[in-house]
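Cross-check.
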Amino acid sequence: MQNRFDYSYLCCLIDDSLHPYTALEGNFLTKEKEKALLIALSQVFREVEVLKHKLASDSEDTVAIAPTCYSNSSGTLTIHSEDHPCLEKIVSDLIVFLASESQYVQHLAGNILVATSKLVGTSGRNWNEFLHLLCVCLEVAAYHTLSYSSKPSKRGSEDLIRDLSSSFILLRPRLKHSSLSTVAGLARIFRNILKYLKQENDDQLVRVYFDCVGSCLNSIPWDLLNEIGQPVSKIVFSGNIVQLFCSMVEKCGAEATSDSVNNHPILLKINDLVPKLLYWCLDKQNFCSEMCLSQYFKHKTLMLMIRLSSKLHLDSSILVSWLLLLQKHFQDLLQQPIGEPGWLLNEFEDGSPFLASLLDKEEHNICSHHLQRRAIFLFMKCSLSLTSSREENGLLKLHEWLQCQLPGALFVEQDLYWENCMNFALSFIQLFVHEDDILFEVLLLLLNLPVHADQQICEETGTFLPMEEDKILFHISNVFNPIHLFHLFLAELHYDHQVLLDYLISRDTGINCAAYLLKCLRLVCKSWDLFVGFSPSGNSQEQSRKKIKILQDDPNSLARSPAAPVERTPVPLLLEMGCKLDDKYGHKHHRTDVKTFEEAKDCLISLKTSVERLYKKNLFPYNPGVLLKRGGHISALSFLKAI
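Predicted model, tokenized:
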């Protein structure tokens, strides 16, 4: 609903309050002038907030005190009969302060522009015009900044000239002192406006926002922004840009069901800028040498890439380029050992000064583990996405990472080999189990890991041996055995079905948790003997004392193999084949660990009972019919085993 609002009062207020300072050179404010300006800006900000709240509470009456606006610069009376000239005057009077050297002046001026955007959005009028003015400011500031360091391209200059609209003519002189900090300030303004839009839930305002900002981003010469600005300005610029992009991608994802935002070109533009963002934020030659600053930028860029990966379809070329970027900028996190099961963190209470000092000394603090989780998750997502498209490069990258995490572990005798696989799987689960938002995503990714169907059987031991061209996938499948991971996951939850129930009913994890449980329960039913015979020690197999070198040749042999790809079979089918081959050769593939199996079984049956009880009382948030059916199969198989 549109509210009748006359912008002339706000235009007069800003002009009367700030005109004594707009005529000054913003970079040469004395302390006294700066103090007076900050007081004036604060008063204007409070007045805009009052107008916004009054407009929101009174949707029918006109909110204005005076329909005219006096221009102090000429001393004559100027009447603004339309909204657009008033908005131009408001933006031009405020934007000049974004070029000030005082960060406090920049911050307050930006806050007033954000508050004005809320006022415009609440009025329901001139939203497109207001955003267009801010976009013109961003383009002008970007090109003006470039003019001091490099000559803009001919195409860029022509784009900037546009049609010499009144907005451009009015705003360009106001930004003659703009710098990289001005561009950063405008990025912060756009991000804060987006925060406001998230609260309003107005699809029309969001649609116009993305259209305007998307067009603006396409007009900025990003290639020329690599070598400009002072280190501090670069830090502020990079931080605000990556924050803006993270917020925009998140909002695009939140509106994925809306045609106005889903697959919006702005996502593609941000994706194209990922390599530049990583260079600006993480290249040590720029400024990112301090540990805290480096960790912050790693967190934000990883968050951006993870969000993009879930909103866009990344083709093979992009996945390969992302793997190279991860290797270049996050190699320290990928190569950092995950650690032994229950390492270090279990030795001290949370918040212990001994823990803090030791972690700081070893550079294995909570922040680094958070970053490591994100980096490994993104790395595995890219690798497995390549694998699903039958790109062997994905498997090779994953195997190289495992070799780095388990140096020499794939060359030892067979019983120690299985123990190493189990220990690493446990460490992997422990790394992710405390971060719910990506825990089930990574577990679901691993369930999609393909397995080669053609396997050789060692007649002396009854165990699988890989074909020459299948060795890499063979080891990956053993390390990330889905039955083992499911058992270890339940063990890390202490077999507490209430924790699983919380996951299932959570708005954040419910969908992914339900998907993971359904797939795992189906897998357990098809491979019951393997589930029953699991042992967390990794020694559940009846091993021959004969040593078998698992990997003899060059680990890159798969990449060089000219043989055609071998047909791949889903994990459940291979596990079923394993149980049948055990019977054929008269060997038990697994020896039952009664305590582990009983605890896992009781946990799953208790979960089924709790879900069923809540569903009957209409307290479960969705229909769990399939989940209850799979749980019933587990109960039936457990009953048959008991008799």
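The chain has 29 helices and six strands. The mean pLDDT is 76. Passed to J.P. for a second look.
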